[in-house]
Design goal:
By secondary structure, this protein is α/β, with parallel strands linked by helices. It has seven helices and nine strands, in the order αβββαβαβαββαβααβ. Helices cover 25% and strands 22% of the residues. The protein binds 4-ethoxy-4-oxobutanoic acid and zinc ion (ZN).
Length: 264
């Protein structure tokens, strides 16, 4: 069909296409040594192998406290195969706190768009961040620091800062009902509530899940993350159907909150 949206990539989505282990794009990867960069700890870039569809939006993803890139690696090919350049990073030290992780996510995006081998494949105006735990707290810090980001997805986030009135980036927060490290009552839920009520924002609480659920392949995280990134990084309203109305309570979703329909 003739796409009116210049950022639309890939075929029309379906429940099965957003739940699939891989999307329509073959994925290549290149590793970035910590010795070759400043401001973050290196990582792996996953990207659609073909250049036939033009440029793509890009995201950087941070692991949590004491964790490495490997703990979030499953998201690299899962998201890149849907049509994004995805940079899973290591932090400078595994003990870095959320504000530092936010700055490192931004340094990684700057490297990706400015210096990386795939920079010509990226649309510099369509960038986002994700992260697990302190990396999820860091995603909120990155969005606060850089309002031009188009999407943020904190996964079972942890942060001492609970209020996010400065954020202008559409934000999808995943909590886990059984999280005892970053309990939703003191982390994910107040972070959601602390975002501006006028913002495109959502909160999905994973059912029967723990703090570490985002560290392995998870179709609920994948399908709603793909939809959020497509909707807000690609402006692709074909994915709005998976976000609004909000997902109902189910075997996989314990609770959902958000504004529907979206405003941006
Ligand atoms: O990144 C995380 O897993 C944060 C949770 C944590 O261990 O905080 C304790 C300081
Ligand atoms: Zn900062």
């Amino acid at each position: 069909h003739a796409a009116a949206n210049p950022y639309e990539r890939g075929p029309a989505p379906s429940q099965s296409s957003i739940e699939a282990l891989r999307g329509p794009y073959s994925v290549s990867e290149t590793s970035v040594s910590s010795l070759s960069v400043t401001g973050f700890g290196g990582g792996t870039i996953y990207y659609p192998s073909s250049t036939a569809d033009g440029t793509f939006g890009a995201i950087a993803i941070s692991p949590g406290f004491t964790a490495y890139e490997s703990s979030i690696a499953w998201l690299g090919p899962r998201l890149a195969s849907q049509g994004f350049v995805v940079f899973t990073i290591d932090t400078k030290t595994t003990l870095d706190q959320p504000d530092s992780r936010g700055d490192q996510l931004l340094a990684a995006l700057d490297y990706l768009t400015g210096r990386s081998a795939v920079r010509s494949r990226i649309d510099n105006s369509r960038l986002g961040v994700m992260g697990h735990s302190m990396g999820g707290g860091g995603s909120l810090e990155a969005a606060k620091d850089r309002p031009s980001l188009q999407a943020a997805i904190p996964l079972t986030p942890w942060n001492l800062d609970k209020t996010w009135p400065e954020v202008r980036t559409p934000t999808l927060i995943f909590g886990a009902d059984g999280d005892t490290v970053a309990p939703v009552s003191t982390h994910a839920e107040p972070f959601y509530t602390g975002l501006p009520s006028s913002l495109d924002r959502a909160y999905l609480e994973l059912n029967n899940a723990t703090h570490f659920t985002p560290n392995s392949s998870n179709t609920t995280i994948a399908k709603y993350s793909i939809s959020w990134l497509k909707r807000f990084i690609d402006n692709d309203t074909r994915y709005e159907q998976f976000l609004c109305p909000l997902p109902q309570r189910s075997l996989t979703i314990a609770e959902s909150r958000g504004n529907c329909p979206h405003t941006s």
